[in-house]
């Protein structure tokens, strides 16, 4: 693994956006694996800005998002599809047909997870997967567990994740209890993986995930085994390393 230490959130966002841009320039029909959460917001802003300047073209780009809440439809402003439309897709020239996100409204978990794995396979796999990290070490919504779940699956969110994500909802009771997420195997098959992390609150989990043992109890720790994994993190997030 490679660690790129940056000054602050702005610096992290710019460098991560540069890595994604390089991928898009070298391979205009790249399959981008995208993430939600507050950490990638700055890098999406940069991509939109550079698209506006004519430096980036999304015409042939394909995207697959990591996860989606079960039960939320695309027009629900807390769904990850809504987040992606608002912060990236509506602002660039991506073809909506090329956007893929698990369908939170499909209650048939088995069918939805199988469909999503097939979508990724049919695109030829993910060229570059962007990740954030949950305070408990989750990636996508792969929560700490006794074993690594390999494929796209439906997951029960942990109390700490529900707690962390309640800031986006009116009330904690409105936070969905389940999500569809790519599995650890789905993520690890990406040709390149880039994680962004910023701020003091992420320092303990960054240390545990990347200097500790590889265990499904800290899902992000598995990334130590990926052949092309880059962590772009600011000084605060790396302060305990
Ligand atoms: C959610 C998402 C993750 C994300 C995490 C951290 O749980 N499913 O993909 O990495 O939040 O979010 P933030 O970047 O807001 O700390």
From TrEMBL:
It is an enzyme of class 3 (hydrolase). The active site is at 67 (proton acceptor), 136 (for ring-opening step), 138 (proton acceptor), 143 (for ring-opening step). Its EC number is 3.5.99.6. The keyword Cytoplasm does not apply. It catalyses: alpha-D-glucosamine 6-phosphate + H2O = beta-D-fructose 6-phosphate + NH4(+). One of its GO terms (molecular function) is identical protein binding. Pathway: Amino-sugar metabolism; N-acetylneuraminate degradation; D-fructose 6-phosphate from N-acetylneuraminate: step 5/5. Keywords: Carbohydrate metabolism, Hydrolase. Pfam families: Glucosamine_iso. It comes from the Bacteria. GO terms for biological process: carbohydrate metabolic process; glucosamine catabolic process; N-acetylglucosamine catabolic process; N-acetylneuraminate catabolic process. Residues 16-226 form the Glucosamine/galactosamine-6-phosphate isomerase domain. GO terms for cellular component: cytoplasm. InterPro entries: Glc/Gal-6P_isomerase (IPR006148), Glucosamine6P_isomerase (IPR004547), Glucosamine6P_isomerase_CS (IPR018321), NagB/RpiA_transferase-like (IPR037171). Catalyzes the reversible isomerization-deamination of glucosamine 6-phosphate (GlcN6P) to form fructose 6-phosphate (Fru6P) and ammonium ion. Belongs to the glucosamine/galactosamine-6-phosphate isomerase family. NagB subfamily. This is Glucosamine-6-phosphate deaminase. It comes from Butyrivibrio hungatei.
């Amino acid at each position: 693994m490679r660690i790129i230490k940056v000054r602050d959130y702005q610096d992290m966002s710019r460098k991560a956006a540069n890595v994604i841009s390089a991928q898009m320039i070298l391979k205009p029909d790249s399959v981008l694996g995208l993430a939600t959460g507050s950490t990638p917001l700055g890098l999406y802003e940069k991509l939109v800005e550079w698209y506006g300047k004519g430096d980036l073209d999304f015409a042939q780009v394909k995207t697959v998002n990591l996860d989606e809440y079960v039960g939320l439809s695309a027009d629900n402003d807390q769904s990850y599809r809504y987040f992606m439309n608002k912060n990236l897709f509506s602002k660039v020239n991506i073809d909506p047909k090329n956007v893929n996100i698990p369908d939170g409204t499909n209650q048939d978990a088995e069918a939805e997870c199988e469909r999503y794995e097939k979508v990724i396979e049919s695109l030829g796999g993910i060229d570059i997967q962007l990740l954030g990290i949950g305070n408990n070490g989750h990636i996508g919504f792969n929560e700490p567990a006794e074993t690594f779940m390999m494929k796209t699956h439906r997951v029960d969110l942990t109390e700490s994740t529900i707690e962390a994500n309640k800031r986006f909802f009116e009330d904690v009771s409105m936070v969905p209890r389940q999500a569809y997420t790519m599995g650890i195997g789905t993520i690890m098959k990406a040709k390149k993986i880039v994680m962004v992390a910023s701020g003091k609150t992420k320092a303990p989990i960054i240390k545990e995930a990347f200097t500790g043992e590889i265990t499904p109890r800290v899902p992000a720790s598995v990334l130590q085994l990926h052949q092309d994994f880059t962590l772009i993190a600011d000084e605060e997030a790396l302060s305990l390393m």
